[in-house]
Please model this.
Amino acid sequence: MMNVYVLGAGSGEQGAGNRVHGSLLPAPGSLYLLDLPGYGYSRASRADRAAFRGLITHTLDRPRLAGVLWLLDIRREPSDDDRAMQELVAQRETPVLAALTKSDALARAAQVRRERELRGVLELDDDQMIVTSAREEEGIAELRQAIWGLIGGGPPSDPGLAPGVSPPWSRC
Model:
């Protein structure tokens, strides 16, 4: 989505990823997008879930953390683990952007209803939530822009590419 170079590879099996995967963002300085293990609907054991929580807590305690991009399935109610994540983020006053995924699975009226419901349940402002569908490419350009805003700016205006070569983020 952010046209990043992936430094780590995830597992194709749901619930099997138990590492932080980092991706270098094409921006000045050292900006990384960290992909933390998901645990809401995964088949992870209780021990793995506890380890995930410790890893996430450690990551949220990093002083240079710009913010959290929180992926939530628009079709599902927030799990107990989602609520725990919400508390962790709120306690640390970490900037958060929620991307409601899989919106293509719902009719337009249901999308609007679910967005309103989830915004209320999660106590998020309008600018903290974006409805997305990777399949339909809905909300992806807006999400890219919001992520750049979350990390404090935008992609570099001069990435140092050869003449005639467009940076990947120009396709937003």
